[in-house]
Amino acid sequence: MKKYIFCMKGIIYKELIRFLKQKSRFFSALVRPLLWLFIFSVGFKTALGLAIIPPYETYITYETYIVPGLVGMVLLFNGMQSSLTMIFDREMGSMKILLTSYINRNYLLFCKMFATSIVSTLQAITFLLIAKIYGVEISYVAIIITIPIIIISSIILNAFALFISSVIKQLENFATVMNFVIFPMFFLSSALYPLWKIKDSSLLLFNISSFNPFTYIVESIRFSLYMKFDSELFMILVISFVITLIMAFVGFKSKKINHS
Amino acid sequence: MKKNILELNNVDFSYGKKQVLTNVALNIKEGTFSVLLGLNGAGKSTLFSLVTRLLNLQKGEIFINSFSIQDYLNALKDIGIVFQEPTLDLDLTVKQNLYYYGSLKGLGFNETLVSIQDEIKKLELGNVMDTTVRNLNGGHRRRVEILRALINKPKLLLLDEATVGLDLKSRFDILAYVRDLVETKNISVLWITHLFDEVTLEDNLSIIKDGQIIDSGIVKDIVKKYEKDNLVDAFNFLVR
Questions:
Q1: Using an 8 Å Cβ cutoff, are A40 and A141 in contact?
Q2: B96–A98: do the CB atoms touch at under 8 Å?
Q3: Residue B111 has what pLDDT?
Q4: Which end of chain B is less congested by CB atoms within 10 angstroms, N or C?
Q5: Are A259 and B49 in contact (CB < 8 Å)?
Q6: Closest CB from A14, A17, A259 relative to B46
Q7: A98 touches chain B (CB under 8 A)
Q8: Chain B contacts to A (CB-CB under 8 A)
């Protein structure tokens, strides 16, 4: 048991040191959602009228609406980037060190994803604090309550990213992943507009969005930031957590190393 | 009689249709310095990846310290590994890299340092422990990787072309240090190389060509067997 604790501690320790040393990576991860908050939302708030929808009990500003989606964006980009790094590193560098450890490989992968999720959570919290300073109504208590949801969501996205980059060879490239995974997942969700708005325009896209796990991640964050609990959403999140982890472990195991 | 610390029996491996290793058998005795010598592309690194479980075994058996590689939780417990390519995290200090690796071996930070205290001195790394790896030269980085492999006192040390890219002095310093580990710590070493000047007449040698071990034994016996003057001639005769 002790060795598993030390192992988890060591992997988190390494990720946090790298995070603290790579400040540019930290800021660039924040710039993207902040641009959406500061610029995109200003342009779109007049175009998009929002009805009162759960969990909100009153009319809210568009900035308030998109903040959970932008938190999801931080987690999505980080998850994809780190999982792709894991796939690349499997053939070179520090991942080899990880994989030759005598500790259970699935546990090591979980530790790595958990460590990444802590880094993503720190970025997401920073984003939420900036959004609060900007004027979006979020309480500090709500941010604290949301941390576990952010961590679980981040692990789901890391695991999903690890799975797809393991099994689809063509996705070993971040630009391709952006176009074929990140953007479709992001836009086909409730991150930028409520699903009923999509339903009004296209039933097909609404149905696709309803099956998109990212939608439930965004909604879980939204409910939590509004200090509401939805048991159905929580169950979906837990089930997604288990399924994506299994997919990641199986996918990573089946990934072949290319030797030159 | 010394027991086998590493044993490979009838190991085959292919990448798709390309057969890379064929019926490989290799025994490394406890407390010996053994060399696997072969040209580039002979299959050395594939064999190394199989022993370290980076690649899954397709056919045959591998035992490390009597544990099958399938039982990797026990088999990999007592080995130290130095990869051909750099595997240190450049953004971390030497100490942080060691802590990280120690944690992957299930050790706490203090236990990690205690397990290699003597070796830090021998490798003259005491004054660079808090230096970021990025700021170290190639020779120092290599020594740190060897030091890292010695965490938790392994019984078998695997080194894949560990001196590639280093100047002559650094190469022979590292080689001398690793040979000394065999003498003083009874650690078994498998030294994988394509460089003849790293092999002595007393070493246990296995020669690999096109994925097959074509001869094994003490170097001087192999040289004598083929009636050659030196290892280079014997090797060229065997792989021609």
A1: no
A2: no
A3: 92
A4: N
A5: yes
A6: A259
A7: yes
A8: 15, 20, 45-46, 49, 52-55, 72-77, 81, 83, 85-89, 91-92, 96, 99-108
Cβ count within 10 A of residue B106: 20
Binning pLDDT at 50, 70 and 90, where does residue A241 land? very high
Residue A241, Cβ density class (10 Å: 0-12 exposed, 13-18 middle, ≥19 buried): middle
Domain ranges of chain A: 2-259
Q: Which tokens go with A152?
A: 């679980």
**Predicted confidence (pLDDT) per residue in B117-142, tens digit:** 999 999 999 999 999 999 999 999 99
| Chain A residues in contact with B54 (beta carbon < 8 A) | 96, 99-100, 257
pLDDT of residue A91: 60
The confidence band for A48, taking pLDDT boundaries of 50, 70 and 90, is low
CB contacts, 8 Å: B89 with chain A: 14, 18, 94
CA of A11: which chain B residue's CA is closest? Answer: B100
Beta bridge partners of B34: B190, B204
Interface predicted TM-score (ipTM) of this complex, two decimals: 0.84
pTM confidence score: 0.85
The C-alpha atoms of residue A155 and residue A109 are separated, in whole angstroms, by: 11
Q: How many Å apart are CA A51 and CA A63, to the nearest integer?
A: 14
Q: Where are the beta strands (DSSP E) in chain B?
A: 4-15, 18-29, 33-38, 59-64, 67-68, 79-82, 156-160, 188-193, 204-209, 212-218
CB contact under 8 A, B74 and A14: no
- Cβ B106–A21 below 8 Å, yes or no? no
pLDDT in tens, B44-78: 989 999 999 888 899 999 999 999 999 988 999 89
